[in-house]
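[Archive record]
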Amino acid sequence: MDPVVPEGPQRNDSPAAPDHTPAAGAADAEAAEADSAPLALKILVAGGFGVGKTTLVGAVSEIRPLRTEELLSEVGESVDDTAGVHRKAATTVAMDFGRITIRSGLSLYLFGTPGQDRFWFLWDDLSQGALGAVVVADTRRLADSFFAVDYFEDRRIPFVVAVNCFAGAQSYGAREVSRALDLDRGTPVVLCDARDRDSGKEVLIRLVEYAGRMHTTRMLDSMG
């Protein structure tokens, strides 16, 4: 009689069945929800006094914008330089706020900064967590943009310069404005009309694209 040889473990060539346990299903659902979750980005709208920051936020916002404006008075004549903006009757004393949806799943929360130097202390709080900034400029008073440019360059916050093309003002090209402001190479300069929603939206799209490239480059540099 031949010896009986015990059988070894049986090989299973069939593919493993998917894990349908409650834990695996919950994890898959959470991952899918994370992928489809809407993204909200914080954007600053900054610049000098009377350049059109409040106008830009109000033009593009899909909600009723929050404004903290006070009427200009004789008391403030010694500190508010209205040269070139004689028709300006009110000024932002804290911030403007608005929201715009760029595309499905991507919204921008806009925080407009006050322009006068006595309110610059608010910028540090407003800039916390910002993806980037729009520096609104008026070519008639381009020097008023220097503080905002220096502020964001020093803090390495990506920004674009949006030249608000006022009626009657001499027109300059993007390169001329870039040289006049001594911008870092590659910083975008966009000509716009702060009153026009589509024009303002194009400015914000340029900023999101530029800021995305800058943050990606910095992340890769830190890893390398």
The chain has a mean pLDDT of 82. Helices lie at 22-36, 53-60, 122-126, 146-154, 174-181, 197-223.
